[in-house]
Known about the structure:
Blueprint: H1 2-38, H2 40-49, H3 52-79, H4 86-102, H5 107-118, H6 123-152, H7 159-181, H8 186-197, H9 201-222, H10 224-251
Helix pairs in contact: 1-4, 3-4, 3-10, 4-5, 5-6, 6-7, 6-9, 6-10, 7-9, 8-9
Amino acid sequence: MKEEFGGAYEQRKTKSWTYRIIAFIIGIGILLALIYYAGFEQFLDIILQTSPYLITTAVIVYAASWIFRTWRLERFTTHAGKNIKIFDLFKLYISGYALNVILPAKLGDAATVGYLKMKGINIGRSAAIVLQTRILDVLALVLLAIPALILFSEKAAPNWIWTTIFICLFVVAVPIGIGILDKNKTFSSILDKLGNKFSHNSLKLAVEKAKDAYEGYHEIVLNKKLLFSSILLSLMIWLFEALTCYTVSIAIGAQI
């Protein structure tokens, strides 16, 4: 039994590394294709004129954003009852992020759910964690964008920008609001009743996983300490992301 468990673990580990290598190769291929279409000579000129000191600074700033990303994920996994090593969280998080960059339909998020499940967190709770990180990213961007538009824009922001911000606020407010107001888990009971009406096992399983995800999300939102600390960490993440973009723009001589 122990040998079978060890073999299964090694097989999952091998598959994980295989996915990472494939993702890396695809990413390099896409990068080379972009350089080709942009023009190799133009790309080379920009690289030669780029300040190595500012690029190094940008790398350090961007690395700092990943410290906060990993810290935020650690808060959620600890709340889920799992003490996962920080470096392991970093590896699984950045692997999912890389897959999101090179693959369509945010498949990296699905991979992150799978990675968390491999670490012992059930799939419903894993999905809730990934969903909450995405919601927090949107919230942080909105909270940073509003004062930036007011303080740093020389001209009034176009209406479409404000419309986008209000839509994002609505998208963020709905799930968080439902989680906070639904103290009796009414929505969970509805999903439970809905699952009992289905005779097909696949549909029952889908509803059951949706219920698990909602209950996991409900627990995350109702934990005020976790909610506010994760919002603060999200603000730090996107502040460092913005500083990275600004530093790179200065390094290559772009005027922003």
